[in-house]
Write a structure and sequence with these properties.
- The chain has 14 helices and 20 strands.
- It starts with a strand and ends with a helix.
- The longest helix has 26 residues.
- Helix 6 runs parallel beside helix 9, helix 8 runs antiparallel to helix 10 and helix 10 runs parallel beside helix 13.
- Strands 7, 8, 9, 10, 11, 14, 15, 16 and 18 form a nine-stranded mixed β-sheet that branches. Strands 1-6-5-2-4-3 form a six-stranded mixed β-sheet, covered by helices on one side. It has a three-stranded mixed β-sheet with strand order 12-13-17.
- The protein is elongated, with a radius of gyration of 24 Å.
- Helix 4 links the parallel strand 5 and strand 6.
- The chain folds into two domains: 161 residues, Leucine Aminopeptidase, subunit E, domain 1 (3-Layer(aba) Sandwich), CATH 3.40.220; 315 residues, Zn peptidases (Aminopeptidase).
- With 503 residues, the protein is α/β, with parallel strands linked by helices.
């Protein structure tokens, strides 16, 4: 998908020439904003009439489009509601822009101009607002059309202009656009990767995508092939890969952005199962097609490394993607098999559909070789996460309180919220095996917790967080800036955390 261009301009809404002029208004505020009042006056009170008749009240997701009859330079005016000022947040703005770009597209306009709203969320800067507006617009216009024989349905919106009446706002707004574009592009990249079917998006194809990312300034790439994994004794990853004809790949991307070579890196590890049948413990047929997105964690790590390079973040970053399919077959791993992991620990495999934690165990053990300042893994790991949290929160586990708080704050800013779950050692009783160091499942009770506790045994003593995105990676319906299907949720969370850490 071609990304919408976003630019910043100084001017007045009443005089700017544009296909659609967008005014973001809070509920109950009327036309107190000077720019909106000026547009209303030039249009002979048309906006005031809408407010008086309550055809527009400023409620969230409320939109009214007017043709200006050439009374102002803009061809149309689109009023967009933000809801009550007291509850205004960055994600409110993001959602408003998602609805906006859909309505502009419906009007068959190729570009639009949006005035920076007078009301902004508490503790938010011009950079934050511009970033949220840019993300919402880019993500709200997302479509995946690679396999449509008739191309893109509808009309593409190519350009959005953020309009400010103050020259002094140009620099912070432009920086917000830069950040928002990088985060929006990254999320679109993830959605595209996860929308491709698994006969296209194989581990080999993921490795090819990593090669493209490695062209970014400061990024290097190493790919371990099956023979390399065998030499390292990555028995868990190789065990999962046994049932597939597609060769596994262990992908390592390194971005060096810190001026200090001795700075320890942030290491991201992403689950990259390009299709998950469940293996011998076969999944039900219903909705199995969603399992093409079981690589979301790895795709998000790939995107985060690319975004860090494009933003020139002053930190060192390592992205690790253990990539394979999980398939049944004559050579496939079976319940009761025992695998020896890279760490030396042995695991009794009691369910081959609990494969994500197996490949991540080798990924985390490899990550520990970098002696990371921070270690984060992200994965569509457990159905239990969906049961516990529904679709609006990412499950978070961790061993470091400062790191968890930083991730929580990043989630609030990004609109991709996390919710901490307990990581208590008592739950490990459920993972004890009679024949190995541990088993890979712990029964139905606390399934999300036992999965995270399993991973903790391979994360070493480094500050570590596990993000379970199984609850958020796929949407059954279209929302403001989230499409039906693969969502890419978790991408902007990682990027926001990296920006907060380094900017």
């Amino acid at each position: 998908m071609k990304i919408m261009k976003v630019e910043v301009k100084v001017g007045r809404p009443a005089t700017v020439a544009t296909e659609v002029l967008v005014l973001l208004l809070c509920e109950g505020d009327g036309l107190s904003e000077q720019d909106a009042a000026s547009v209303d006056k030039t249009m002979g009170g048309a906006l005031s009439d809408l407010l008086k008749s309550k055809e527009f009240e400023g409620k969230p997701a409320e939109l009214v489009l007017l043709h200006t009859q050439r009374k102002i330079s803009a061809k149309r005016v689109l009023l967009v509601g933000l809801g009550k000022k007291a509850s205004l947040g960055l994600d409110t703005i993001r959602q408003a822009m998602g609805h906006t770009v859909k309505r502009v597209k419906q009007a068959k306009a190729a570009s639009f101009t949006v005035a920076i709203p007078a009301a902004v969320p508490a503790d938010s800067t011009a950079i934050d607002v511009a970033q949220a507006m840019t993300e919402g617009a880019i993500l709200g216009g997302y479509q995946f059309t690679a396999y449509r024989s008739h191309g893109t349905p509808g009309h593409d919106v190519k350009t959005m202009t953020l309009l400010t009446s103050h020259q002094s706002d140009m620099r912070p707004l432009s920086e917000g656009v830069r950040r928002g574009t990088a985060a929006g592009e990254a999320t679109v990249f993830v959605r595209d990767l996860c929308n491709h079917p698994s006969n296209i998006m194989t581990p080999t194809k993921v490795a090819q995508e990593a090669k493209v990312v490695a062209r970014e300034a400061g990024v290097s790439l190493k790919i371990l092939e099956q023979k390399d994994m065998e030499k390292l004794s990555m028995g868990a990853l190789l065990g999962v890969a046994r049932g597939s004809h597609e060769p596994p790949k262990f992908i390592i991307l390194e971005y060096r952005g810190s001026r200090k070579k001795e700075d320890r890196p942030v290491v991201l590890v992403g689950k990259t199962i390009t299709f998950d049948t469940g293996g011998i413990s076969l999944k039900p047929a219903e909705n199995m097609e969603h399992m093409k997105a079981d690589m979301t964690g790895g795709a998000e790590v790939l995107a985060a490394v690319r975004a860090a390079a494009r933003l020139k973040l002053p930190l060192n970053l390592v992205g690790i993607l253990p990539a394979t399919e999980n398939m049944p077959g004559g050579r496939a791993m079976k319940p009761g098999d025992i695998v020896k992991t890279l760490s030396g620990k042995t695991v009794e495999v009691q369910n081959t559909d609990a494969e994500g934690r197996l490949i991540l165990s080798d990924g985390l053990a490899y990550a520990a070789r970098y002696k990371p300042a921070v270690l984060i893994d992200i994965a569509t790991l457990t159905g239990a996460c969906i049961v516990a949290l529904g679709q609006f929160a990412i499950g978070m586990f961790g061993t470091d309180d400062r790191l968890k708080e930083s991730m929580r704050k990043a989630g609030l800013r990004a609109g991709e919220r996390v919710w901490e779950m307990p990581l208590w050692e008592e739950y490990f009783e459920q993972l004890k095996s009679d024949v190995a160091d541990m088993r890979n499942i712990g029964g139905r009770g606390g399934g999300m917790i036992t999965a995270a506790l399993f991973l903790s045994k391979f994360a070493g003593e480094f500050p570590w967080i596990h993000l379970d995105i199984a609850s958020t990676d796929w949407s059954e319906r279209e929302r403001a800036y989230i499409p039906k299907g693969p969502t890419g949720i978790g991408t902007r969370l990682l990027i926001q955390y990296l920006m907060d850490r380094s900017l």
